[in-house]
Each structure stands twice: as structure tokens, then as C-alpha cells.
Design goal:
The protein is 33% helix and 12% strand. The chain starts with 22 loop residues before the first strand and ends with a helix. Strands 1-3-2-4-6-5 form a 6-stranded mixed sheet. Helix 2 crosses helix 6 and helix 3 packs across helix 4. By secondary structure, the protein is an alpha/beta fold.
């Protein structure tokens, strides 16, 4: 976004400021789906959940769970790799006021569908936050996989197996606000990662 003011101490030229591609293991069984690039995180670094509070919370836990090669995620050249995990966002560009609208979810769903199609071993989609979860279920509805997205209500740790056999798992978003208010904590996220691992191995 050209009107986005850089964070204090940074310059506009440092920002990626384009659609943020997903990244991770192309043979992944787990697809972690976030909401949208953070204004001063992924929108700056060009990699999902890199350089913001949500990633600072999440990557050490992904490392502890065996999904990430290291606990730090600072920039795309930091050596971080993912194992059995691919990460992307439901909305590909940072939205106005950092709050994605329905039209942005809708316009980005074809890109989400294309990303998922490349993951040939996929077993589990773990969606962070209601927005990402609802948009993914809308994609399933538009694709004819489910009849009604409303039949799959969002709740933290809710796990649904779709008619295709794919599991969809809901998780509270790992935003700094949610972490600071206690809506989600490290134990909750780790417990869900362990459940996701089980579903990926047995699904």
C-alpha cells in the first residue's frame, strides 16, 4: 500500500509492499493459513509471519513441535526452513486499515486454491482466526466440497473432516493482541499443533 507509513526507524524502500507468497515444504501434509500480511511484518519482509508479533509467538512453538528448523523468523534470508508445513495467508496483500474485507477474501480465494492444489500430500488445513477459517470454508463451498460453510462453525481447536478426507482445524489467531489478552497462549497452540500432527499422520 503506497499510503502505508513505514514503522518508526524504517524507510519505505525497505518494504516488500506486494502480494506475499506462501512458503514452506512443497511435500507438506499441513497447511497453516493466516489472515493477511501484517502491515509491518510480512508486508515489509515478504514472508508470512516474519517480522511481527504473531510470528515472534508462533515460530518458536513451530520449532519446538518439529515444523520449523529454527525458532527465529527475521527475514527471508535467515535460514529458516519448514518441515511438513506450508504457510500462507487467506488475503495476499496488506488490507486497508489492516482489516481485510469480504471482497478481499473473495478476490484472493483463487490464489489460495492454486496454492493448495500444489500441496499433493496435504492432510490438514489449520486456519488462524475466524476470517481465514470462514474464507477457507467458503472456498470449499464454492468448489462443491461442502454444501454449507455454516455447517462448520469456528471454535478454537474445532476439527472437521471434509467429505474429501481433508481435515480443517480452527485456531485462535496468534496476534499480539490475542496473546497479550490471554485469548491464546503457548500451551493452547502447542496442544493444537500436537493434534494437527496426529491428524496428519493418521488422516
Amino acid at each position: 500500500m503506497s499510503e502505508l507509513e513505514p514503522a518508526k526507524g524504517r524507510q519505505r524502500v525497505e518494504y516488500w509492499n506486494r502480494p506475499v507468497p506462501g512458503f514452506g515444504d512443497p511435500a507438506a501434509r499441513v497447511f497453516l493459513l493466516g489472515l493477511a500480511p501484517g502491515a509491518h511484518g510480512a508486508n515489509r519482509t515478504g514472508r508470512p509471519f516474519t517480522g511481527d508479533g504473531a510470528g515472534d509467538f508462533m515460530y518458536p512453538l513451530l520449532h519446538a513441535a518439529g515444523f520449523a528448523s529454527q525458532p527465529q523468523a527475521e527475514h527471508p534470508g535467515d535460514g529458516l526452513t519448514l518441515q511438513d508445513l506450508y504457510i500462507s495467508n487467506a488475503v495476499k496483500c496488506v488490507p486497508p486499515q489492516n482489516k481485510p474485507q469480504h471482497i478481499e477474501f473473495r478476490q484472493c480465494r483463487p490464489f489460495l486454491a492454486a496454492e493448495q492444489k500444489r500441496l499433493k500430500n496435504l492432510k490438514v488445513v489449520m486456519a488462524l482466526g475466524r476470517g481465514a477459517f470462514d474464507s477457507y470454508l467458503r472456498l470449499c463451498q464454492e468448489s462443491g466440497i461442502v454444501e454449507r460453510a455454516a455447517d462448520y462453525p469456528f471454535a478454537h481447536a474445532a476439527c472437521y473432516q471434509l467429505p474429501t478426507g481433508l481435515w480443517v482445524v480452527a485456531c485462535y489467531h496468534t496476534s499480539r493482541y490475542n496473546v497479550n489478552t490471554g485469548r491464546i497462549n503457548a500451551k493452547m497452540f502447542m496442544d493444537l499443533l500436537r493434534q494437527v500432527r496426529i491428524l496428519a499422520e493418521n488422516g
